[in-house]
Amino acid sequence: MTLWNTAPWLVWCIVLPLSAGILTFLFRRAAPWIGIASALGSAIAVAGLAAQVMHSGPLRYSVGGWGVPLGIDLRADGLSVLMLVMSAVIAVAVSVYAACYFSDTDAADKHAAQAHQRAYFWPLWMFLLAGLNGLFLAADIFHLYVTLELLGFAAVSLAALAGKRAAVVAAMRYLLVSLSGSLFFLFGVAILYAAYATVDLTALAGKVQPGPLAWSALALMAAGLLIKGAVFPLHFWLPPAHANAPTPVSALLSALVVKASFYILLRLWFELFSAVVTPATATFLGLLGAGAILWGSAQALHQPRLKLLVAYSTVAQLGYLMLVFPLTQNAGSALTAWSACVYFVLAHACAKTAMFLAAGNIAHAAGHDRIADLDGITQALPLSVAAFALAGISLIGLPPSGGFIAKWMLLQAAIGSGEWGWATLILAGSLLAVAYVLRVLWHAFTQVEVARPLHRVPRTMEWSALALSLLAVLLGLMAARPVELLRTGAPASIHAPGQT
Amino acid sequence: MNLDHWLLVFILLSSFVTGLIIFFLKEEAHRLRTLLNLFGALLKVILVGVMIAGVQSNHVYESRLELLPGLDLVLRADAMSALFATLSSVLWLVTTLYAVGYLEGEPHRSRFFGFFSICVSATTGVALAGNLITFLIFYELLTLSTYPLVVHRGTEQSLRAGRTYLIYTLSGGALLLLATVWLHTLAGPLEFSLGGALAQVATQHRSELIAIFALLITGLGVKAALFPLHGWLPQAMVAPAPVSALLHAVAVVKAGAFGIVRVVYDLYGVHTAQDLGVLAPLAGVAAFTIIYGSVRALFQDDLKRRLAFSTVSQVSYIALGTALFGYLSTIGGLTHLVHQGIMKITLFFCAGIFAHTLGVHKVSEMTGLGLRMPWSMTAFTIAALGMIGVPPFAGFISKWYIGLGAVSSDSYWAVVVLAASSALNAAYFLPILHAAWFKQRQDPWPADHAHGAGEGHWMLLAPPLATAALVVAVGVLANAPFSPLDWVRYITEIEYGK
């Protein structure tokens, strides 16, 4: 088993989807199979990497053997492994779903655009996966910028894929937002490089000192990431872009792409700028999160369309992630808050993908996604409605779901440090989530004769949504391992004195 | 594989897996579904029997799963959980039989029985929970699995009731979660143990523990229908009769009451709770709820609503018995947990038969019912007399002990409450009995599905007759070994360290 232990799995995580991107572009007929194979392949690579990190701690790998400062370095610790596991799981499920979604003959007859969508989805999606995996493994801020840009372009093109007017307008807006966000980030990178002559995260972390220079770099980079991460009040572009995309794309954008910005923000905050950040900034970010939770939920309560409701729920859920900044201020509960937010990311990714896929199935079957007209949908799609409900349970944070464990840790951190305001906010957010999830499930139990004939939804599409939602619920019962893993290579600012 | 580790898991799975399979059955697969239902229910009763035998011979059954570092999901069998697990598994068996008969020919039966089974798994989980976090998990699961049952009919009215139900219970759940996390940060793993485990913590964090107690009781009080948190219960009456029976006697309301018992005895410990001074306010709220529920019941013409307010009142006996600090009242409260379940389920079974067979929903329509349906009405009468507290039926035993406890702890006001409530119980039950047995009926029945004879399907009639027999048996044979009273005495002796 030496091969398994020593193989450069980090590289495979990036190379596999990257080459699949080219292959799917060249061999369009086989594209779905190549895509699924590459998703499975990267999942195996991630598993290998996870085993390595669990066994021997954080890893660092110099591509081509050049090393700092010339070459590109990749690195993996507990946090990046968990992010990679998340993207691998979602990638497999969404690829299976998409293979079915884009080759559904029933729909293909109606839309001439369908063939075009099918042709471009797979290459773009594979590039997106490569960018995402690369981003989670990046060891320097320039590499972070490059992967972020790659991710952004792939995401924007995917959002425009539906080709309808609304989708193109939303994607255009997304493009502008994404570009300006990256630009801000690049400015920050440039400032740091000019000042300290290195882009390596670890090397920079030792050098950065509080001062106007570091502050402006932090401000620029954080602003860029907050825009790209759709943090309230910069979320305006997200709901139309996510809601108008084809279903698999909506799921990917909501579950994975926005998380990338949050991941970078975590890296910057807790490693690079840990000497620079102040409690006031942390509280400010937390307040943005509070705004997101309240505003996003309130909007979700008023959306007439199902996919928009789900998209606004993403805005709200992203708000919880911002709570990591104020809640890590207290040294005693920092590790709990940190674990909570990362676990929240995992739980949300599974639940949100499942929810978008289920919503897509419902829209596909009914021919529309007006919430008010969904009566009788359960009779036609019991599995998808079940998936929606289970995903809702995790989003609300009811036991035993992954969302519950994440909220448990958040509450533990908030109460442990005497922050009753944040604790109240977390609970209020849950109750709001109950309200918007119930808006949909209300129609699951109504008794009507189904008037219109419904489109058939392939079983695979129903089951992939259900499988992910089950995973989101079961995540609550398998949290111990990931939380343990998360300590591997956790930033020093998280490890409080006296904590193991 | 060690059976001691897995027995409790099997008890949970016996109904959970059954439920999952039933979801995927075709609507027409009536026989297979009924077979599965009864198989799961019987298996559960047998497994619980094995567990009780084990607990008696000091066997330790425990299953653990680490959720987070320092946070475990624990299933454990002790005397208290055996009490509630027995109640829920036995009553589930009869309710299953009843529900099969009741829902014959109705739509969405696979969905119904699927959630029905999962609901009972959640209740068993509540019974077997070995610490507060596990209790919380199953308590919330119970909320989720009962919602589809409450809205089963799919009408505007039942959807509304379902929404009210969720708003109440999930808000209560949020408070419970807050309290649990808070207590966890103060006191660690929160294992349930007879005698409680917070005496140490209470010396340092007195005011926090009082606040947490208030939060816990508020969270649990929603399901236990303590005033003013009872609003969902009468509305939830739109659910089909088997669901009402289950909600009132076995699952939801009982889970709340059982939670209060657990918190007072096995989490705080009755001495610590008394020391903190939190029992007196609880007793006050319980006493008020007892009177309030009875008074409201008096004015309901809808039979099921009258029974619902009666539940509001009767379940608070459990809280009252728990909150009156004393050996005898504890016995009364815990016994009532079982006895109230048996009596109330009988009443709801009968109410369901009346509605199903003759279209009788209102108290005012029950005139002459005794002559038309003597068997059902006999069961109803026995349970109603038990509720009033007439000896030798079940309700008498538990009220008697609560009363004795009140006297021995010098809480004479509680005796007055008991007497007043019994008078009110008589006032809302006796007129029904009188009209049903002794008045001649003039008008035709609202909707006679049995065409002038018979009392409906045997599956409908057998369950209330069986539970009515139990009402008599646990009263007359209260001192026999393995009677609820006997078992409760055993628990209470450990609790008070005698």
Overall geometric form of chain A: globular
Q: Quick check: average pLDDT of chain A?
A: 88
Number of helices of chain A: 22
User: What's the total number of strands of chain A?
Assistant: 2
Strand order across the largest sheet of chain A: 1-2
> How can the largest sheet of chain B be summarized?
2 strands, antiparallel
Q: Which sequence of SSEs, written as H and E, runs from N to C of chain A?
A: HHHEEHHHHHHHHHHHHHHHHHHH
In angstroms, what is the radius of gyration of chain B? 21 Å
**How does the overall form of chain B come out from the CA principal axes?**
globular
Secondary structure blueprint with pairings:
The complex is a heterodimer of chains A (500) and B (498).
Chain A: H1 2-6, H2 9-26, H3 31-56, E1 59-62, E2 73-76, H4 78-101, H5 105-108, H6 113-137, H7 141-159, H8 165-196, H9 201-207, H10 212-228, H11 238-244, H12 247-272, H13 279-300, H14 306-322, H15 324-327, H16 334-366, H17 377-380, H18 382-396, H19 402-416, H20 420-441, H21 459-474, H22 480-486
Antiparallel strand pairs in A: 1-2
Helix pairs in contact in A: 2-3, 2-6, 3-4, 3-6, 4-6, 4-12, 4-16, 4-21, 6-7, 6-12, 7-8, 7-12, 8-10, 8-11, 10-12, 11-12, 11-14, 12-16, 13-14, 13-20, 14-16, 14-20, 16-18, 16-19, 16-21, 18-20, 18-21, 19-20
Chain B: H1 3-23, H2 30-56, E1 62-68, E2 71-76, H3 79-102, H4 109-128, H5 132-150, H6 156-187, H7 199-204, H8 206-223, H9 232-235, H10 241-250, H11 252-268, H12 270-276, H13 279-298, H14 303-323, H15 327-358, H16 369-372, H17 374-388, H18 394-408, H19 412-438, H20 458-476, H21 484-495
Antiparallel strand pairs in B: 1-2
Structure in words:
- Chain A has 22 helices and two strands.
- In chain A, strands 1-2 form a two-stranded antiparallel sheet.
- In chain A, α7 packs antiparallel against α12 and α18 runs antiparallel to α20.
- Chain A is globular and about 70 Å long.
- The model of chain A has no long low-confidence stretch (mean pLDDT 88).
- Chain B has 498 residues and is an all-alpha fold.
- The model of chain B has no long low-confidence stretch (mean pLDDT 87).
- The interface between A and B is medium-sized, with 29 and 34 residues.
